[in-house]
Amino acid sequence: MAVALVSTAACADEGMWQPSQMPLLSDQLKARGLEMDPAALSNLAGKPLDAVISLGGCTASFVSPKGLVVSNHHCVYGAVQYNSTPDRDLLTKGFVAKTLADELPAEPNARIYVTQEIGDVTARITEGLDGLDGKARYDTVESRSKALVAECEEPGGLRCNVYNFHGGLQFSLIRQMEIRDVRLVYAPSDAIGKFGGDVDNFEWPRHTGDWGFLRAYVGKDGKPAPYSPDNVPYQPASWLTVSQQPLQEGDYVMVTGYPGSTDRYRLPAEVEQAIDWRYPAMVAYYRESLAEIDRTTAGDKAAALKYASTVAGINNVLKLYQGNLDGFAQMDNPVGIKQAREDALETWLAKRGKQGRAKLEAIRELERELAAGRAVRERELWFGTALGGGLSGTAVSLYRNAIEQAKPDAERKSGYQDRDAPRLAGSMTAFDKRYDPKVDQALMALRLQRYASKVPPSDRVEALDRWLGITATDKTIAGLDTTLDALYAGSKLGDAETRLALLKADKAAIEASGDAALKLAVAMMPTVLKAEQENEARAGRISALRPQYMEAMIDFNQSQGKPVYPDANSSLRITFGTVNGYSPRDGVRMTPFTTLDGIVAKTTGKDPFITPQAELDAIAAGKGAQYRMASLGDVPVNFLSDVDTTGGNSGSPTLNAKGELVGLLFDGNYESLSAGWIFNPELTRSIHVDTRYMRWVMDEVDHAEHLLTEMGLPND
Amino acid sequence: MAVALVSTAACADEGMWQPSQMPLLSDQLKARGLEMDPAALSNLAGKPLDAVISLGGCTASFVSPKGLVVSNHHCVYGAVQYNSTPDRDLLTKGFVAKTLADELPAEPNARIYVTQEIGDVTARITEGLDGLDGKARYDTVESRSKALVAECEEPGGLRCNVYNFHGGLQFSLIRQMEIRDVRLVYAPSDAIGKFGGDVDNFEWPRHTGDWGFLRAYVGKDGKPAPYSPDNVPYQPASWLTVSQQPLQEGDYVMVTGYPGSTDRYRLPAEVEQAIDWRYPAMVAYYRESLAEIDRTTAGDKAAALKYASTVAGINNVLKLYQGNLDGFAQMDNPVGIKQAREDALETWLAKRGKQGRAKLEAIRELERELAAGRAVRERELWFGTALGGGLSGTAVSLYRNAIEQAKPDAERKSGYQDRDAPRLAGSMTAFDKRYDPKVDQALMALRLQRYASKVPPSDRVEALDRWLGITATDKTIAGLDTTLDALYAGSKLGDAETRLALLKADKAAIEASGDAALKLAVAMMPTVLKAEQENEARAGRISALRPQYMEAMIDFNQSQGKPVYPDANSSLRITFGTVNGYSPRDGVRMTPFTTLDGIVAKTTGKDPFITPQAELDAIAAGKGAQYRMASLGDVPVNFLSDVDTTGGNSGSPTLNAKGELVGLLFDGNYESLSAGWIFNPELTRSIHVDTRYMRWVMDEVDHAEHLLTEMGLPND
């Protein structure tokens, strides 16, 4: 009965579709208002898809023939920070390069990836896997993937990755051009680009100017090259056209980008576990962690500063996890929703003879494997967490590094290969900045107490219990303070030079060390490695079963004429829907556009609600009337749509029915947090910055008129 | 620029109009959609106005030829409580009389007032006042009003009151029939009638079933009579017809009722004082009072219980005051709004020759009087507050009573006349239930400290400073605990019998008493009386000036063709507008209807969000489809309109364009709290219960079908 009073769209559109699926969706696309040939949306080599690019973690797009790239402010933030100094504070002041020569090199690891090819490598990955046991299967898939990547990549120019769709039913090899000379062209000030900050994160109404511009540079030969002043702007085959048609409520929109990860096809028991166990357990643990940090940094400003970013990170994850729980709570029986889908599938399979029975058997087997995993979940979580950070985590990393360095590079664990060395050294150097021994000790005590109180006697880690001086049935740890005092007093890993030196130490040297933290790591490592092997074996067994489940799911849906989109996996997807508000509760409707007027209303002059005086003046003067939306009587700032997006989609172009750029996706509403598991069409909404606000700021506040001209847009 | 996206009405309609003004508003009424002759809305003797009645503090209406009365649940609550016993808990279970014989006598002081005549008595009140000084003027108006009332009233049948319009520019004598046999017919359970309780008070979205039914009974001669089983239902000349047309967003609605009091024509300095001084001072004081009650009742359940209703009362006033401040803060310079009106008026007056200059002089004089009042505001407030409650307040009341009893009844202060004796005795009896000496002492300490710290030396009360053992320049009170310990130890006024005996004591007896609290009262009384005389003299002087200001205001508006409605004064008014939501902030819209679905979503099973199982079942079963609103797909529960109402309007009938009953007004939104001073058309909204919800509950949950039939309505 909960129907929004002013709903212009009948229903939101779930689905992060592979481009190749678009022709299957012709009818839906037309019904929603698409005014292009759906086939154009499967063509990776044509507009608009070949203009959609990746920054690695964020999506972006070309918007001019001279390699101008637009993405979110928070996606180009690294480049802004890298170029900021106390004397030239680009964060606060923003930055506009007036000419190509003024454009600033982005941080050294900034990349622009242009997708060139998506090839199906399912056969090459899965051939002959059937006879293998779990661990062997896991290892084979890993090594075949590595081989395919090695065969495809060209260092310094092409990057390749294998993507797993439908839990291993389908594998794609995706080849991307890797542009390494990336320059910062324009970023508004933090006051515009981060307006609302953490307070407004995941919230509507929203008023964030979340855009930034880069430019892709290549060698004079047109090929990717490292930064050089001689490089020239890359000339993309296509670039997006910025719309000059007024976008309205109810209009068709689509988002093309690289969504990271979703869990839409999990079994009911997996959803139940997330709701009943994992999220509540982690929420409680993070809350206690925050309280411990609060307690131990009280009155110690230096320590508080060291943990500021840890606290911000925990708060962000807490909001995500709590948002999941709140979202589930708003659904009428989320596990039941999955169970109903499951029941329908199984009823259908039961009528499909031998083939159906085989699939049902695979599902039962998958459930057993998942149940086996759940049986040891407390140990998995709390033993992993106990050694998962701070001093003890550093000790484990150093020892593991020494173990892996003894192997040939290709056989080493990911994270310890040659290409990972700079990152590992960097994190060992930076550790001090986020470490205070008394805070770390309190957090480790909290984790160890969790371990002792949560892990049942049958699953306890003997080596850890011994180190703690307790038995497997002890739920509390007597004398923990003394044990930890000795650990922290007996370790020199708090010292950066010691850590960096140990990165070069071999296995034997570490095993012989008298450092208390390293001794703990050495004592725990056999259990760590055994657990890892067991996990990989289970993952291997599951990787033989989950594809069968997904195959059944796809066949079942196909029998009803419904295509099935795969869970997000950071590969290129398209999602479509309409500009649409929502009703968070009876009697309240979130309207789909915010306005300049709302910026003024939110502005307090205190972070994160500061607005530049130039912007306030431009608003007060009513400047830029041409960007106004008639029905609002104001310039639209952000808008809502019911397209289906998730993390990784940040910076994605939002296109109208003609494929023109109308916005940039940058967030989802609070109610969308649980959409990773279940897409609730009534409440799940994506948040976009409207290109009219972007153009208004560029024209009236930041004076980036030359970029508007470069994009073919008029300006004052 | 803040225009709601889906606004169907151009603008809300400010104005609580006198019925006689309605013909002046014909054009506006027709533009809003009225489908009746506006002249019918000035006829007190015809439908609908003669069906609109007062319960004294609440509004109600006749809805059947047999004297059936509908009002708010919270307006008939006294009758429900009066008839509830532990064995027959009508509060929890609700009550439906199946026959006339089952109807229950309401509490003894329940009354129904039917307005019969409104006469202009301005000349009789104001004749020859011009030569009088302030105090004489005040006293003359008082005594002439009393004489008019005495002349008009017929004990036991007709009640008369003099109403002051426009600050004394116009006086009306209103005669009402006083029906004393009032019976409870139907009230839903608290779970429906108080759904949302204090949490939802002044809030939208709202889901309260705030209706209740009474019946007016008279003697067999048709005249008012005390309760008797022989009495018969009163037969009103008119009664309202309940609409069967679906009310929609944007539809015309009007509310007829008895709004209590507003301050719309205050001078800028008066608004400024409310914003800058009175509300903040009282908010801070009430917050500290709550903290003191919290502190002193901690761990003492009996004391906490005694102060539960005090705490509830303070919280209610706090919400009202804070809501005023929040409302002012949302306005762009509220004092400036008043100042602009003032400037326009004065500019116009300045061009009006001698007459205009005289009015300007009167305004200056009014400002001087108000400024003189402001000069002593700290003493007025904090000396008044210091002795304004608890033990000391009781002592002052007892002594004042003895002083007044020595005078002839007609000359006594209101509150101490013969007719007040039962109420005074009642409050002296009930005092114990809300009194705990240690809490009262802490609150008195708080009030005295406020007095010492806030009242400047020049305005200090010498007698109080002496009693406190401080000088006029002391900002703190040394030894206050000792002083108060002695006061509380030395008084027996905590004892009910002592208090009741003292009600009969004469002035001399009280002055001779050794009771510490009475001694304090005796010591303070000369200052109390002197301040009262000064106040009345100032009120008298202002009463000569304010009418001149209002006359100028009316003339000025008349010159622009605009009628002026008087501030609310508990007399019958009409306000009109449309069903309309609002946007509390950019990107959010409060939609104007709530639904059954929203009740389910709010229901937690814990007070105040309990829903009767029968109602949940009826909702789940989709019963009563005929009450559904097509555009909602659900039964509407409450709705918003932009009509202009205030306290006293509770229970008022909400009528559609044809004058049919579509709802009952029962509250305003939070943003409306500051509308007592300034009506903000974008944010001020009234909240009504929809008659469709009322009928749905009567039909499907409470089985009051016979009442639907009595009102001429179909039912299942």
Could you please describe the fold and organization of this structure?
- 2 copies of one chain form a homodimer.
- Chain A is α+β, with helices and mostly antiparallel strands and about 725 residues long.
- In chain A, strands 1, 2, 3, 4, 5, 9, 10 and 11 form an 8-stranded antiparallel β-sheet that branches. Chain A has a 7-stranded antiparallel β-sheet with strand order 13-12-18-19-20-17-16. A 3-stranded antiparallel β-sheet of chain A has the order 6-8-7.
- In chain A, strand 2 (about 60) and strand 3 form a beta hairpin.
- The model of chain A is unreliable at about 1-10 (pLDDT under 50).
- At the A-B interface, strand 15, strand 16 and helix 22 of A face strand 15, strand 16 and helix 22 of B.
- Strand 15 (about 590) of chain A pairs antiparallel with strand 15 (about 590) of chain B.
Shape of chain A: globular
Which range best describes the helical content of chain A: under 10%, 10-25%, 25-40%, 40-55%, 55-70% or over 70%? 40-55%
From the N-terminal CA to the C-terminal CA of chain A, the straight-line distance is 49 Å
Tally of DSSP helical segments of chain A = 25
Reported for the largest beta sheet of chain A, the result is: 8 strands, antiparallel
By oligomeric state, this entry counts as homodimer
The percent range for strand residues of chain A is 5-15%
Find the count of extended strands of chain A (DSSP E, 2+ residues). Answer: 20
The whole-angstrom Rg of chain A is 27 Å
The SS-based structural class of chain A is alpha+beta
Taking pLDDT < 50 over at least 5 consecutive residues as the criterion, the unreliable ranges of chain A are 1-10
- The pLDDT mean of chain A sits at 94
The greatest interface between two protein chains, and residues involved on each side, is: A-B, 31 and 31 residues
